[in-house]
Design a protein that fits this description.
With 323 residues, the protein is α/β, with parallel strands linked by helices. The chain has 2 domains: 243 residues, 3-Layer(aba) Sandwich (Rossmann fold); 66 residues, Histone, subunit A. It has 13 helices and 6 strands. It has a 6-stranded parallel beta sheet with strand order 3-2-4-1-5-6, with helices on both faces. Helix 1 crosses helix 13. The mean pLDDT is 91.
């Protein structure tokens, strides 16, 4: 019997502290990090995606932790969960052959599950005509119209996806249009019964009010760090607001401000509100997965202590040496 490739995963809602903990965990395990974020693949979209800075890739020990799946496509290039699945699986195989542990870190549930489980995207080529039709419907009738269409075919997905999240609504409808299977069915048909990898999953969480406070502070920091200029530069380069990439949190609201649809304060408040709602949907997605062992960030004095406990758990589960 051939031993399955090993992979570890750290998930959790945005702003919970995955980056700092994952760097320390990877250092202890001798792992390399694979970004499990659907937005960090885009070049030039750094501040709004909370993309890790090069100096942040260094662990307290001084070792730089290699990162994969960051800055691999331009904002106007088509990119999907199927593309992510193919690229990450190749990366996992390459790292396993080198004797290194792949550590996927992120909050995009569909992308991560597509890698770990038996999601079949072979029939799902990108249908630009269908996407265009749906965007036109959204502009004409509103995103709630599409959300109701999704609810009629996949109530479970509709409960997870916000009625204003047009990009993900269209993605879910496109998956059904192409495969005649819903996103929820794809997830249910995957998982522990026949896992692709020898995998251990860890989740980070904290009390909701504290998380929401951290989200608000993160958004303020993004604005101070130049998010508005980042979006302005993208628009000036011709990356129009309706691109999938430009529908990401922070980008669509700032674009609306720059186009005179919202005031600056309205845009900032919307980013905070929509990010809080997104974090809630992330947790709803992940808590369905019984494989995940949850760690409460508030129970640890610092990231090092949390990372050590997580690394010990991963090491025991995958039977690998812990430094």
């Amino acid at each position: 019997m051939i031993e399955k490739e090993k992979v570890a995963v750290i998930v959790g809602p945005t702003a919970v502290g995955k980056t700092a903990v994952s760097i320390r965990t990877a250092d202890i395990l001798g792992a390399e990090i694979i970004s499990g974020d659907s937005m960090q693949v885009y070049r030039g979209m750094d501040i709004g995606t909370a993309k890790i800075l090069e100096e942040e890739m260094y662990a307290p020990s001084g070792k730089k932790i290699p990162h994969h799946m960051i800055d691999i496509v331009d904002p106007d290039e088509a990119y999907s969960a199927a593309d992510f699945q193919e690229m990450v699986r190749k990366t996992i195989s390459a790292l396993n052959k080198e004797g290194k542990l792949p550590l996927i870190v992120g909050g995009t549930g569909l992308y991560i599950n597509a890698v770990l489980d038996l999601y079949n995207f072979t029939e799902m080529d990108i249908d630009e005509k269908y996407r265009q039709e749906k965007w036109e419907e959204a502009e004409k009738y509103g995103s709630h119209f599409l959300h109701k269409e999704l609810a009629d075919i996949d109530q479970e997905a509709a409960e997870r996806i916000h009625p204003h999240d047009t990009k993900r609504i269209i993605r879910a409808l496109e998956i059904y249009h192409q495969t005649k299977r819903t996103v929820s069915e794809l997830q249910e048909g995957s998982g522990e019964s026949n896992p692709v990898y020898q995998v251990v999953l860890v989740g980070l969480f904290m009390e909701r009010d504290l998380l929401y406070q951290r989200i608000n502070q993160r958004v303020d920091k993004m604005i101070d760090s130049g998010l508005i200029d980042e979006v302005k530069n993208l628009l000036e380069k011709g990356y129009y607001p309706r691109l999938n990439s430009m529908q990401g949190l922070g980008y669509r609201q700032v674009a609306a401000y720059l186009n005179g649809i919202l005031t600056k304060n309205e845009a900032i408040n919307l980013i905070k509100r929509d990010t809080r709602r997104f974090a809630k949907r992330q947790f709803t997605w992940f808590k369905r997965d019984e494989r995940i062992k949850w760690f409460n960030m508030e129970q640890y004095e610092n990231e090092d202590q949390c990372a050590r406990e997580i690394a010990d758990y991963i090491g025991r589960s995958l039977v690998i040496a812990v430094e």
